[in-house]
Specification:
The protein is mostly helical and 431 residues long. It is 68% helix and 1% strand. A two-stranded antiparallel ribbon has the order 1-2. α10 packs across α16.
Length: 431
């Protein structure tokens, strides 16, 4: 791809969206207006804003962990998803995720092309008390942060233009089937009985497995030792993520009711448990109780409780945070000792493994249908779905890396990597 072709694609895309029509239909029908709930709508507007804040939070979280010469590039890789995915979502992404089901696998891209039919009236198939447009915007925030999560595994060595192309393809090919199968009323996994309250499978497992594929494809960094450049950035990013996660999980109730309150409480408790488990486990293994460790532990707890947030009790959330923290801690240590995979910021061990643990423990603790309730079917289905999702997300993502690399070299040159991505990719430097 030439330098001018990037702008020409955008120059054609914008009028195409306008021509296809992004006008909305006002909720003027009396029955539609009667179904709207102002409390639910207010909460979902706030929750959507919370989730959007997670992506800048992720930028600080990742940016603080990398070498000083890569901070700007690493942060921008997360931040730019706000722009790229937002436009793509309106054009066709939402249709692929929530359009009329094609065999329970993916949505028909024509259903809501350029947001046609996404109006202010509620859609009872998805969220019957809030405007359909608001539902679409809430789901957009999940689509934004998923490819942004992947970037941590490639930090310090990925070409920015190539990453943008990968992000577009991931958002069109990998994310929509997982989202549709899990959350669409006619989705294959949902019809089968797989539970994912807020995205343990759709967001974290998919991003984690794609991150593993990216780390394997790109190979090791020239400088394998990682010294966080700005730990206060990491702490700030963790705080923003924790704050935004309340919208992520509690917002997935799609109402200002008891399910939202339960998800809110479970989110906080699991993260708190995972954070203190991480630092005390580090101390048990004769390591320092570090700020970075506390932050990673908190995020792992947030990841693990995500699929279970509205299905389990407060006590269960403590156990989920505890178990996920231990397993992810051991997984990160094993990856570092093996030296075979250079997942720069441990995305797979945190989000991939954390999402898997959360998915399995959802099958254990979910009220009425989990193992602790004497039921076995849901857990078995979660095991099968976990394997299928992990293999599918990894294979598709690896194929996309190979495709993008054939068009635009994914990895920067050794001189560019040594100089730093801030300077070589963006012409900017921290003073």
């Amino acid at each position: 791809m030439g330098r001018k072709s990037n702008f020409l694609v955008l120059a054609l895309l914008v009028p195409a969206i306008w021509f296809l029509g992004t006008s909305y239909e006002a909720a003027t029908d009396e029955s539609a207006l009667a179904a709207l709930d102002t409390g639910d709508t207010a909460w979902m507007v706030v929750a959507s804003a919370f989730v959007l804040l997670m992506t800048p939070g992720l930028a600080f979280f990742y940016g603080g962990m990398v070498d000083k010469k890569h901070i700007i590039s690493t942060m921008l890789q997360s931040f730019v998803a706000l722009g790229v995915i937002s436009v793509l979502w309106v054009l066709v992404g939402f249709s692929l995720c929530f359009g009329d089901s094609l065999g329970g696998i993916v949505g028909d891209p024509r259903t809501f092309l350029a947001f046609r039919g996404v109006g202010l009236s509620p859609n009872a198939d998805f969220a019957g008390t809030i405007p359909f447009l608001l539902f679409a915007l809430f789901q957009l925030k999940f689509a934004i942060i998923t490819p942004a999560l992947i970037t941590g595994s490639m930090a310090g060595r990925v070409r920015f233009r190539a990453y943008i192309l990968f992000m577009v393809l991931f958002a069109l090919i990998v994310y929509p089937p997982l989202c549709h199968m899990t959350w669409h009323p006619d989705g294959l996994l949902r019809q089968w009985g797989v539970l994912d309250f807020a995205g343990g499978t759709v967001v974290h497992m998919s991003a984690g497995c794609a991150a593993l594929a990216g780390a394997l494809f790109l190979g090791r960094r020239m400088e394998s030792k990682l010294t966080p450049a700005n730990i206060p950035f990491v702490i700030l990013g963790t705080g923003l993520l924790w704050f935004g996660w309340f919208g992520f999980n509690a917002g997935s109730a799609f109402s200002a009711g008891t399910d939202a309150v339960l998800a809110f409480a479970n989110t906080n408790l699991a993260s708190a448990t995972a954070m203190i488990t991480w630092i005390f486990f580090d101390r048990y293994r004769d390591r320092k109780m570090s700020a970075v460790g506390a932050c990673i532990g908190a995020v792992v707890g947030l990841v693990a409780i995500t699929p279970a947030a509205g299905f389990v009790s407060l006590g269960d959330s403590v156990l989920i945070g505890f178990v996920a923290s231990l397993i992810s801690n051991v997984a990160i240590d094993a990856f570092h000792k093996s030296g075979r995979v250079d997942d720069t910021l441990d995305v797979f061990a945190s989000h991939g493994v954390g999402g898997m643990v959360g998915m399995l423990l959802t099958g254990v603790f979910a009220a009425e249908v989990g193992l602790t309730s004497g039921a076995f079917e849901t857990f078995g289905k979660h095991v099968a779905a976990l394997i299928a999702v992990a293999v599918g997300a990894f294979a598709l993502s690896y194929g996309l890396f190979a495709l993008v690399n054939a068009l635009i070299p994914m990895r920067v040159t050794s001189k560019q990597e040594e100089r730093g991505l801030d300077d070589s990719q963006h012409g900017e430097k921290l003073q």
